[in-house]
Amino acid sequence: xxxELVKLVLxxxxxxxxxxxxxxxxxxxxxxxxxxxxxxxPTPEALxxxxxxxxxxxxxxxxxxxxxxxxKRRLARFDRTQEAxxxxxxxxxxxxxxxxxxxxxxxxxxxxxxxxxxxxxxxxPCPQCHPSAARPLSxxx
Length: 141
Description:
By secondary structure, the chain is mostly helical. The chain is built from seven helices and two strands; from the N terminus they run αααααααββ. The chain has helices spanning 3-17, 24-40, 44-56, 62-67, 69-75, 80-85, 89-92, and strands at residues 111-115, 121-125. α1 (3-17) packs parallel to α3.
């Protein structure tokens, strides 16, 4: 394994954990996982993102961190093939409103996440930009 890549991952984990460097046992665990992880995530940016995410949670399992939905969202920034393969329907079909830009609205799915009074996450189509809820632009006055 490339020593510079190991150094990058260890530093990213430490930055996420807000430490000067990982403890010795953590360094050993992370270094052992790196060859397998690098097969699935070959770019230094992706490995750094995963390691920092794991460090923020003080997790020692990089594979677990990589599979977490929040980490996957961070990784999507580096996966240009995924962006090209997933067109946004509202931007491709004529007569559909463009993405609303609301923080709780997902740009790709056009679904909004909100917490109900019991603290559970509720996902529903965005009333402003989801294709099933939006009126065609020609009907907007």
